[in-house]
Design a protein that fits this description.
The protein has about 270 residues and is of the alpha/beta class. It is built from 13 helices and nine strands. It has a nine-stranded parallel β-sheet. The longest helix is centred in the first third of the chain and has 14 residues. About 0% of the residues have low confidence.
Length: about 270
Amino acid sequence: MSRIKSCIAAAQAAGRKALIPYIVAGDPDHETTVALMHQLVRDGADIIELGMPFSDPSSDGAIIQLGAERALRNGAGLDTVFSVVSQFRQQDDSTPVVLMGYLNPVEIMGYPAFVEQAAEAGADGLLLVDLPVSAAESLLALTQPRDIDVIFLVAPTTTDRRIAAICEHSSGYLYYVSLKGVTGAAISDTGEIAGRVAGLRAQTELPIMVGFGIKDNASALAMAAVSDGVIVGSALVQKIGELSDTDSREASLIADKTALIAAIRQALDSKPA
């Protein structure tokens, strides 16, 4: 059983909603990324989505684009991503890490080399935003023997035919995009999201996580009420961006920047699953 499946099963058994923060590897630097990951676990994160910095993150809004730019300016690339995960694993062998990003850097490295290095580093999942499920067969053939879950996005505009294929080939969890647009936009119709998530449940037994637009306790609670967990990205990356304005990397300052996650964890745990 993969770390992701075990983690979510344990959360569900405890009546607990999964909390999945997203940060960019190398933002603002390698060592701080590792420290942020450990702090997020202390704050109550169940799974960490680690962004692979890319120069053209087309599905991301300005905040995550700036995070990627900060990382790239510091020389971050796939080597940084693997190194961050490997260093994190030296102290934490249980928290699942999902690598999230775009297809271009992975194709340049080559699927076999990428999957091998991701597995050796200790990554548990892979989400490539612009990889259609119809083109994922060769990647899945490499990830499945290494117990790396491949996660796909389901958007409000995803067709029924494509949803069926995604449900067939996904593992770990489904990532439901709560809105039409890029990361950082606001959620506008909770009722519509609830209906679409209910439709997904009729097609798969995979856990369903909701992301995009979750930025505070209220939005997290609203989305957790209709799903198995929530993903928090832009609001956290925006706070991490403030670390670039100081030379200090003290633990107390890092904890201050991730306090949003601790607050959401407390809010989620205060409500019955």
